[in-house]
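During the no-cost extension, the postdoctoral fellow (Dr. R.K.) reprocessed legacy sequence entries with the updated structure-token encoder. One reprocessed record is reproduced below for audit purposes.
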Amino acid sequence: MSKRTFVSLAFCLAGIFALYGQEENQNNYGVDEANTKFSLQSGVLGGETNYTYLSLKDHEDVSGVPLGGIGVGNINFAPSGKFTRIGMNNIHTPIKRSEHSFFSLWTRKGNEKEAVRLVRDNHVLYGMKGVEHTQYKGLFPTAELSYADNNLKVTPVIRAYSGLVPHNVKDSSLPVVWFEVDLIAQEDMEAALAFSWEDFIGLFNDPKSLEGFDNGQLLSEGRANINNGENWPLREKAKTYVEPYQMGSLKGLIQYAADSLQPRKLTFQNYVNQVVIAVEEEKNVSYLPAYRSNSEAWDQFRNNGEFTSSLTKNVLTEQSQTSSASVLAVKTQLKAGQKKTIRFMLAWYAPELQIDAAALPIGSYWPCGADYNKYYHNYFNSMNSMVSYAVSNRARIARQTTEWQIPVLESSLPDWYKFKLINSGYVIYTNMVLTKGGDVMVNEGAMGGFAGTMDQRLSSHPFYQKFFTQLDRSEMDIFADAMDPEGYILHFIGHYYVGMGTVGGRVPTEKGWMLDNASGWIIQLVKDYEQTGDTEYLKAHLTGLKRAMKFLYSRMPQGSTIPVGPTTYDDFTHPPLYSYYAGVWLTTLRAYEAIGKAIGDESIVKQAQQQFATSQKEALEKLWNGRFFAYGCEPDGSKRLDNVLFTGQLAGQFLSRYCGWGDVYPMDIVKASMISQCKISLSKSPDYYANKVWDINLNRGIDNRGSQCWPFYLESYTALAGMQAGFYEDAMDIMKHIQLVHLRKGWTWTQNLWNPSDITYMTAPVTWFSTDVLAGAGVNIPRKELRLAPVVADDKVISIPLFYPNFWGVVTADPQKKSITFKITKKYGKERISFNKVISEPAGLSTSEKREIEIKEFVVEEGKTLDLSPYWDRIIDNRLEAPVLQEADKHDFRYVTIK
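Re-encoded structure tokens follow.
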């Protein structure tokens, strides 16, 4: 097919698509702009592949580990020692970097003295040069920065961390960051450490006026454009002050605005009016209350390692002026070989907002939904009360934060994987909105501020669901409450710059459906029920589940048993009967069958099974072309696009098998599809970062230039589906290279969907599916079933951590001893959980060949171990495929004929 022919076909398809739902689903949520604004930058794909992931040397610093808390803002502590992506006020459009926020080190031995900024750069600022080399260990939400090879007389190491304690929302939503700096000297000398922090108070986005704003729905009449806070200017800089601060063992400075900061339009930004920088349990502390860019302000520190500024209230920044900064310095005497640790705190606080509905103008806030305050307002009514709690509980919070990291770091998995898995959770800081009332939504990223995004949530949710089930359910409940009268699940439940829904309220984003919004909500809800055993949760949503299924049935066109309509892949035209959604529909039916079994409704079970058989037969007959699932076709099967390969074709297969509901397609077909994707598009793309839509005749991708790979879906719907099918090495290779694309440019903690760049998109936590896939694991607590079939690729011992909402464990398999155990490492709640059956579905084997092993009841208790070694041969039976990607031309296509 020529390019001209394809373009003509695309226009034709666009017209067909309108006939199947688009004409009744028109709304403007900024998709056209988002799909075209991020072009693929030259030199992004391909390059270095060997990194020391747990000690990145002289690494790019666009982003760093976000530090802060859930729903309260964050700052990135970058691998160069700079502070970047400062989202203290605005997590959606953070300030790119600060030149006035940094650590600096002063040393003196006799008459020799030196002062350097602990920042890797080539500049001299404030009379101090930077350093040449850094080593960075970033594991969200912790970072360690060291400074070897700089010929410094004192070797510093900075350890930064904030709280993220599973199932403890209070301790995970504190806007508090700790920096512990170790100083080690080779000989006796004086040393001083200074921490400079820029004044960011009042730097939030706000429209110049409320003209044109109202309380109407955002997806109509152009309201999305006017409410796009990305285009609003920063509010005029507020006048701020600085004065000494002391709280118990803390001593430092407090930056503050005299009054609360009232925006013209309330949003979910943080209206921070107080910031504390302090040091704990130190005596020789000095201050530079305010300075700008003048190097003379640092003369005293450079000369003597301390400041002599007066400790009184000072103006920090005048209104409308460029921000100043404040400095806190600690001077000490070091003995040779001694390690001195200095602990700094950075904390920020926004007062609770009080809404006077009678006084505020229309359009200044969303009156129908969640509150705009912070979760910490449930516990702390002042900076002092919050800081006091943070100090008292620091050690415990720090220890509990690392508890979920340790099993990953102690596993047998490669370092690149450990690094990727732990860090992919960063979105819970950078994108999640959490209110005082406990309402949750997750910013999509870019998109003007729209949030919730159910279609992407299907791949992004596992980190939240595993570690913060309460928050995951909050967002799910709001989606349920906001269900359209027609029975469909909305695309969004809120907007960062407008408001969000709450149960019993109303969202500002009504109307607009996608098929996989309804399917995604159903699948996630049923999976949650099976992983928690919470029958009441399932029953509470039963009516909504039935309504959503009824809606999906209504989208079946004449002559087809597969619903037709728009889906998550909204950036490129696709045919009505779509390979992506055909599989997701089959998984939805499997979820509905599971609902029927859970509530004992045989009519639902029978209906779901019969519909599954009919729809599966249709999907195979109309979409399978012998090598892979065609991009799509007409509902009657005509005009099938066999020349277009699509990387989302195994989405339903992945989701169903992951959830424990079996394969939706025969395994030989899944394997043939995977080989076709590897040979046709992935292997021909640098870093396997292939276009989603690939024209075989043109031998290239044909996606929009501004929206090409969508790596998070490539990871779940291709790589992990491939791992389930036995393509272990190829799956790991794809995942590794997805990370490399972002890592090379310093985008590890700000990954984009459309094309690689510094946008924190919501779906980075997709990697948290993979521990279960690697272990062939899952649970169905109501049925007392444990699924376990770890991938054993060689004769080495493997150790894989598993995390579920109510418990954690580690599966260990030793091929040489043929031993396999499952140890419970953590248990949450008092509910009794037990297993009396182990189900093995080895990678590469059809789930129709699963092995069911009856065992003596095993009660889940912390520290207990389930020994499954007697069943080794039934559990460990992987049928792994030879890797295809690296030598794709040497592998033949596989052809499967539908019988």
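The two ends are 30 Å apart (CA to CA). The longest helix spans residues 602-623. The remaining legacy entries will be reprocessed before the final report is submitted.
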